[in-house]
Amino acid sequence: MTLPIKKACGLTAALLASVALASAASAQGFDWMAHKGETITFLANNNPVATAILKYKDDFEKKTGITLKVDSYQEQQMRQRLLTVLNAHSDEVDVFMTLPSREGRQFAAAGWYQDLKPYTGDQTVSPDYDFGGLGKALVDAAVFDGTLTGIPLNIEGPLLYYRTDLFEKCGVDAPKSIEDIQKAAEKIKGCSDASNVTPFASRGLKPALPYTFSNFLHNEGGEYMKDGKSALCSDAGKKALSTYANLLKDYGPPGVVNYSFYQLTSLYRAGRAAMSFQSSNEFPSVMEGGERLKDTGIMPLPAGAGGSHPTTIGWAMAVSKYSAHPETAWYFVQWATSPKMQAKLALEGIAPPRAAAAEDADYKAWLAEEPVRQKWQEALQTLASDGTSEVGYPIVQNPESREYIGQAVDDILLGTADVDQACANADQQLNALIERE
Amino acid sequence: MARTLSPRGQLLGLSAPALVFTVVMIAFPFGYTLWLSLQSFTATGMTRFEGLGNYGRMVSDGQFWNGLTVTFYLYFLSLALQLFFGTVLALLLFRAKKLPGIVRSLFISPFMMPPVVAGMMWLVILDPSLGAANFILTSLGLPPSTWLASPGLVVPTLALIDSWQWSPYVALIVLGGLQALPPSVYEAAEIDGASGWKVLWRITLPLLLPTLATATILRSVDLLRFFDLIYITTQGGPANASTTLNIYGFRTGFEFFQLGYASALMVTLSVIVLGAVLILNRMRDAVAW
């Protein structure tokens, strides 16, 4: 089961402390050129994180003498390739990007990850690496059955972006609860200053929406599984399903059922949405062009009946179990997740998984340039301290579980089922999935 | 003195490349898929021999029947539109012989565009909030549409996009057929005083039937395996309304990692495609002249 991030901190503290001590003792013999002349292949997801890292590819090659071959795909195509390569036990890929909250349990159970724990504690650690400085909760979220499957690259989660100018014109206060979102949306819908603006937008595309829906579920006090069974039909589950689906149905943009990050960003950036619940990762894209820099507020999803439990996940860098050069691959992982690199990435809007990066002078100056950046950073700090990484069911077949969650929301959204039917159908399929596991 | 191969040796030598290609690129992948379809995979890659279990599972799988229905709905609708528009375009191009080459090339250019690019382009145009299509509709005083986001409209919309892209391809085939029609028949029709409409219905279209049958076969193979455009625009949604058998098989295999069941779905689809081609081939023979 995925632990709430706050609780998980303690579990990893001992591991991190011992690793940090061991590294300090052994790092003196570290040599960045130890694998000079070798070649490794990096399977990258063509997202802002990888794009920002690969801008510095030449620096890595110069620093280490290692040749980095990059295989870059969109997220789904990357997974397709990864599954094929790993299932064939091929050494074609040495390093890859992974989402522990999605495929971590599955890949770990299949034994496809190289355990990185031993690498963080021996002579292959640079003196300035500071493994202990990585967000403990994110490190813990990447540990499955004692195996450290990846090193965090970023921290992210869905955040509520809202138009402060429209809220002011329409006399709406920033929401303090999920109920307030509905009230704000209703008021904006009837506000003449916000005509042609969608009151509320979030993901509606079936496989993509569990990322945003999970926050509603947890804030309403729900959980995906209880006593080994699917719990979407619990009171909290039904409340979350109907609240999320009805917000989209009553106040969402036309065609929201096909909405993922791309449409949400386009809509909000174009000034056509008053509230958009979408990924913190999209912040640079949302602010592109500068039109939303001065009129946007950002906050985690307001609390529901069950409190505030933001969804917090992150991409991680992993080494394939079948890599012919795991030590060399680790050098790349170490370089990409080093304090120096993560401080550079932070300046490009990649939220750093290291608390120290937030204290970096350049980063602070960048934040200070625009109040909205500061708001974004504050929201990220809340994600880091209060978040949970449960997106979909905590089972090996997590990706398939997302399909049924998405179907339940879309059934209500499209009016093909009421909440009781939708959750019952989903529970039936999810229980079968759990049983199959 | 150079040795000459026996006729049998020459036959083997000359056909070897084609034979190797067929085995490596067609027979082996299909045989391997067939073997996979008899296995059961866990999410962690473990396999177990399942026999015909995966095929039995299809019968009670609502998603399979939905996929089959969507596949055929999209197939018949797209095929009808493409044959119609392709023939109309070919007749126009055939008559407009003085049309500059660049204009003719523009007419037939959509099918040269990669489907992914076409999909992205139409995704932007048909966006219900920001797209040009709804802007035009509302500018004309017409109600906006949800296009790809409506369970009822998604298949017709996909069929229209595919027809925009592939009708010119059908037109090229039909144009070739038109140019090969015997002029003597038209001369006889002219002497008999047949109207243009009668010539079209009684002479041109019947004589074009073998060409249209060829176009039907070529498009059928593609349409029954419809994938890229759906994957880019809707990923099978909303609510499985555009989940063809191909999309369902892909998601089952590569997103849910049930490679055995996905292989069984793909073998079934291959049989359907093969069956359709065989039937259409028979029909083409029947209309040959």
TrEMBL record, chain A:
<keyword id="KW-1003">Cell membrane</keyword>
<protein>
    <submittedName>
        <fullName>Sugar ABC transporter substrate-binding protein</fullName>
    </submittedName>
</protein>
<dbReference type="InterPro" id="IPR006059">
    <property type="entry name" value="SBP"/>
</dbReference>
<keyword id="KW-0732">Signal</keyword>
<keyword id="KW-0574">Periplasm</keyword>
<dbReference type="Pfam" id="PF01547">
    <property type="entry name" value="SBP_bac_1"/>
</dbReference>
<feature type="signal peptide">
    <location>
        <begin position="1"/>
        <end position="22"/>
    </location>
</feature>
<keyword id="KW-0564">Palmitate</keyword>
<keyword id="KW-0449">Lipoprotein</keyword>
<keyword id="KW-0472">Membrane</keyword>
<comment type="similarity">
    <text>Belongs to the bacterial solute-binding protein 1 family.</text>
</comment>
<dbReference type="InterPro" id="IPR050490">
    <property type="entry name" value="Bact_solute-bd_prot1"/>
</dbReference>
Automatic annotation (TrEMBL), chain B:
<protein>
    <submittedName>
        <fullName>Sugar ABC transporter permease</fullName>
    </submittedName>
</protein>
<dbReference type="Pfam" id="PF00528">
    <property type="entry name" value="BPD_transp_1"/>
</dbReference>
<keyword id="KW-0812">Transmembrane</keyword>
<feature type="transmembrane region" description="Helical">
    <location>
        <begin position="12"/>
        <end position="32"/>
    </location>
</feature>
<feature type="transmembrane region" description="Helical">
    <location>
        <begin position="199"/>
        <end position="218"/>
    </location>
</feature>
<feature type="transmembrane region" description="Helical">
    <location>
        <begin position="72"/>
        <end position="94"/>
    </location>
</feature>
<feature type="domain" description="ABC transmembrane type-1">
    <location>
        <begin position="68"/>
        <end position="278"/>
    </location>
</feature>
<dbReference type="InterPro" id="IPR052730">
    <property type="entry name" value="Sugar_ABC_transporter"/>
</dbReference>
<feature type="transmembrane region" description="Helical">
    <location>
        <begin position="259"/>
        <end position="280"/>
    </location>
</feature>
<keyword id="KW-0472">Membrane</keyword>
<dbReference type="InterPro" id="IPR035906">
    <property type="entry name" value="MetI-like_sf"/>
</dbReference>
<dbReference type="InterPro" id="IPR000515">
    <property type="entry name" value="MetI-like"/>
</dbReference>
<feature type="transmembrane region" description="Helical">
    <location>
        <begin position="106"/>
        <end position="125"/>
    </location>
</feature>
<comment type="similarity">
    <text>Belongs to the binding-protein-dependent transport system permease family.</text>
</comment>
<feature type="transmembrane region" description="Helical">
    <location>
        <begin position="166"/>
        <end position="187"/>
    </location>
</feature>
<keyword id="KW-1133">Transmembrane helix</keyword>
<keyword id="KW-0813">Transport</keyword>
